[in-house]
Amino acid sequence: MLPISYGTAIIVFCIGLYTILSKRNLFKTVIGLSLMEGGVLMLITSSGYVPGGVPALLPFAGGEPVNPLPHSFTLTAIVIGAADVALALAFIIKIHRRYGTVDIDKIRGLRG
Amino acid sequence: MNPVLAIVAPFLAAFTIPLFFVFRKRWIGSSIVLFGILSALLSLFVAAGGERAVVMGGWNPEVGITLVVDSLSTAFLILAALGFSASLSAATEAFGYGPWRFYVLFFLSWAATNGIILTGDLFNLFVFFEIFSVAAYLVVAYPPRSWQAIEAGFKYLIFGTVGALFLLIGIAYAFMATGQLNMAILARVLPRAPETTLSVVIGCLVVGLFIKSGTVPGHFWLPDAHSSAQTPVSALLSGVFVKVSLYALIRLTFLLFGNADGRVFFVLLLFGTVTLCLGHLMAFQQEDIKRLLAYSTVAQVGTIVIAIGCASAGGIAAAVYHAFNHMAAKMGLFLVAGVLAEDRASRDIAQMRGLFRHRPLFVLAFCLFAASIAGIPPLNGFMSKWFLLVAAAERGALIPAAAVVAGTVLSAAYYLRAITAFFSPAETEPPHLRPHPVTGAIVMLLALLGLVLALAPYIDPLREGLLAVGSDTSSGARYIGRVLQ
Hints:
The complex is a heterodimer of chains A (about 110) and B (about 475). With about 110 residues, chain A is mainly alpha-helical. Chain A has helices at about 1-20, 25-45, 70-100. Chain A has one domain (about 1-50, about 65-105): Helix Hairpins (Orthogonal Bundle). The longest helix of chain A has about 30 residues, at about 70-100. Chain B has helices at about 5-25, 30-50, 70-95, 100-120, 120-140, 145-180, 185-190, 195-215, 220-230, 230-255, 265-285, 290-310, 315-345, 360-375, 380-395, 400-425, 435-455, 460-475, 475-485, and strands spanning about 50-55, 65-70. The longest helix of chain B has about 30 residues, at about 145-180. Helices cover about 75% and strands about 0% of the residues of chain B. Chain B is globular. Chains A and B meet through helix 1, helix 2 and helix 3 of A and helix 5, helix 6 and helix 9 of B.
């Protein structure tokens, strides 16, 4: 059960990293960022899982609750990630207005 | 004084300036100056208040977020306060008080910088890193009319976010392995984790911090961001922003992995050496003066990473000392280069001929700073490189030490190229000669700071302070004891 969720998270992270490294389209780069973030968040969320655990809500229905701490990290990180993606998209709009393209190779400044 | 004030004061500034814009437009200028002075003074008071650890909200260290002031954070708080005040003064002269959004971002990055320096909690470190980075991307991309700056900001954003995600995944692994996030507790329990886990945690954290600080595989954003940003921002980037990531690198490597795994320091030595060589070689080829200075910053980051990689008290002392020297000299260089480039309306070194006759004091200051960065003997850059070479020799790291010495020669060569241009006769008069009284005063103060730093090994309190930073940080026992007392 658990190894599959961890493995999925790492695979999603790596797909995101590969997207950033290989794609020449700025939008795809941002999609890659979102994928990487999703991978990390999946990993953090699944790390709080307790086999057979119940949701950590008061009052307890009985049984062992899952660890709620990773969930709060995830919420914080989602907010931060949203800010990053929004900023990236705003930059892309500005770049597109100047060059009329979102292809990295055709944008002069983004070299070396 | 509660250390949180050093974080709250700049945040207060950042969130009050928009209110002034809505309700009292005339107060914006004076409020920016007052908030700048307040933030700098509070940072310095917190730094001067002695070592302590405060858990916010009165929780246990296991649960609450700890703010720690120890000798290393004291040193970097002072560095940040000096760097931010100098950049703020230069920015008020360069931009005026009209673009209040810039100052909002400026104060946000200041608050987050102080937060990174003070926090004792790993996840809180990540949050502050992201506040700092988002503000930094926008500060680099200011003003929004400049396309180069927008592109540099975007590039910085992509690299910075990838770095942050590596940092986050490292933090996640550390949390999964131990269930703790407090750095002092982690320092005790993390070495008990399996060796593979530890390697992965170290790898992720170090890769993230390498990208954030501009060490070689992740340095591509640094020259673009430095050369495309406005002059006060370039000075700030080089003087403070890069150093903050290096602070986190010093803190995490020594606290979490200092006793556990010595291999991380070999990696630091290796990448530091590569960064140093590549930075100097690339700087040698640049025609644009700000790109030259930016690649020189890459090389100096490599120097500091080598100093951290020496894994000894002397190495840390050298790293901190060099961080201060580089801050003083490189901020001065960027400010002078900005003024001179504005005179010529060009950043091309070949266009910079004959400027000595027009701005003799600025050019002389440039020579002083360049000599200091290159490491000419009586100046501060030489002193810190000497400390570094001693530490590297004690560690037995002879190739990095040789690279530092060779880099000194190379940097002297490329700085001399710029200086030769300044002193050679001009074909044309520079088109404009706007006076820069504030920038001139800051450059003079930075030169004075450099001279004081050059004497630091002979001034007892400063020398003892530097050595104390080294010995406290390299063992980490004092930090852990203070948090968990």
